[in-house]
Amino acid sequence: MHAPNAESLVQEKCSSAYDFFRLFMDDEFLALVATQTTLYARQHNATDWETDKDQLMTFWGILLLSGYAKLPHRRLYWQSDPDVFNELVSSSMRRDVFESISKYLHLADNTLLDKGADKDPYFKIRPLFDHLNSKFKVLEKPKDLSIDESMVPYYGHHPGKQFIRCKPVRFGFKLWCITTADGYLLHAEPYCGRATRLQETGLGQGADVVLGLVEACQVGPGHELFFDNLFTSVDLLEVLDARGIGATGTLRENRRGGAPLPSKREMGKKNRGTVAEAHSGNVTLVTWKDNKSVTLASNVHSAQPMSSKTCWSRKDRREVSIPMPKVVREYNQAMGGVDLFDEAVGAYRVHLRSKKWWRPLLNWGINASAVNAWRLRQKITGKKDSLLEFTRELVMQMLALHGSTRKRPGRSLSLPGPAGDAARKDGLLYWPRKGATNRARCRQCGRRSAYECMKCNLPVHPECMEAFHA
């Protein structure tokens, strides 16, 4: 149970984008990731390598930055060429450190991987879902909640990958999600067949998902759920009604339970705005004809009182007003929270990729935390900044607080040479010669150079000599 003054406590504690993000990505989770990442490095003979929470927060920040400042390859963020160089990234973390974290990053100990019949297919990423699901419930739940499926894009080979034709993301991992009506995620459960961690009710997959998410979020009397025809059935609405939970959803024709309603074929012949209503116990079924017919079932709402909807009539070539049932109006207003959440996550999705199958899910978790932090700050403080503004503020704060400006000797383009700045810029007696190695970087442009300055003993291209000594 949450404290009754949780909202006021959050308001006192948090003000910046970084503060709200840290509600979800806290020290407890960072310590877990740092421990497991270091352990994985030890298991792969990197005995002197380790990481800490500052490096991980910097790593998260660079991942978020890649969502709105996209480059074709991640090494380009550290490239010194003026068309791709990113000073914020290169001054926060060395490229080799970023590559090492990306290589060894882990959330669970592989030696504990269960190889039995009840093996968790998402063992490697399960700590992320367990942590975020517990942290996302920071405030009391509003009255209206939305349940739907969400997709995390993935195009590799994995037995958990799904294909959903009608989704904006058609290939990837499927998540069962419950959100508020404005798109704040409360709980997400990855779908993995029979191993999905949701209770079995015997009423079908849709009822299993809804009731499982209800239990996970402790949804009780006074709340109302909205979902689509993948989940809706008369039996499910009756079970929810017995628990005092309101529910409304679109209904497939073969799930009407014999209710005396016109078929889709019959409704297709009727005029727009035609309404038919039937009852099955405490559940009300309403069929309404708009451009096409749609059937909704609810244990709270009915067709009355009717309202109106303005739409364009091709027959009359003008806007006309047609009657609209109350249940349709309520459904349109409250349904779509998961779609709003998906839209926000996809707007600035982490662009940097990895060969590890679970990394898209980790990237999704980082994006989801940023989106929830943005929604939460809007609710608590009333600040109406855009998601892009929030994400940029968050990234700059993360890299400023946790990034390191330490550089390896000889890598900074602004470091003076052995001759000193005064001697280097006196304009006298400088000329190129073949260097001892061709792996040094030119002090002017940063690219590999086989030449050096005889005066300064520093790697410089012949064509860069004049600019370097100017």
TrEMBL record:
It comes from Amphibalanus amphitrite. One of its GO terms (molecular function) is sequence-specific DNA binding. This is PiggyBac transposable element-derived protein 3. Residues 16-374 form the PiggyBac transposable element-derived protein domain. Residues 251-275 are annotated as: Disordered. The gene is PGBD3_38. It comes from the Eukaryota. Transmembrane segments: none annotated.
